[in-house]
Specification:
By secondary structure, the protein is of the alpha+beta class. The chain has 4 helices and 4 strands. A 4-stranded antiparallel sheet has the order 2-3-1-4. Helix 1 packs antiparallel against helix 3.
Length: about 110
């Protein structure tokens, strides 16, 4: 039985100075936090900014959870999500994503 889906996205952001990068991280954090309570099926959202300072780290991570795959798919085209994507489009220089069943279903890992 399919269950909740965890959606994790990490970004590298533009910025030539530490202040520009910090401002970009704050903008991403505020934009995604503004989605709380606005999207059906979005059951958890957390945004974290990197504090490691290592050169290979991403700047920001989004950890969100959806009731099921259908809710995650609906999120992709939800007007509020599209608005945030558009608002932040010029800040991103790289994006990485992983979606997985939150209940750690072993068959999902095996591709069955």
């Amino acid at each position: 039985m399919p269950g909740p889906v965890r959606h994790i996205v990490m970004w590298r952001l533009r910025g030539d100075t530490p202040k520009e990068r910090a401002d970009a991280r704050a903008k991403v954090k505020a934009a995604f936090e503004g989605l709380r309570g606005r999207i059906d099926g979005l059951t958890h959202i957390e945004i974290g900014a990197d504090v490691s300072g290592v050169d290979y780290a991403c700047d920001v991570v989004l950890v969100s959870e959806f009731a099921d795959r259908a809710a995650l798919e609906a999120y992709g085209s939800h007007p509020e999500h599209l608005r945030v994507r558009q608002e932040l489009a010029d800040l991103r220089i790289a994006r990485f994503q992983v979606d997985y069943l939150a209940d750690n279903d072993a068959s999902a890992v095996a591709g069955e």
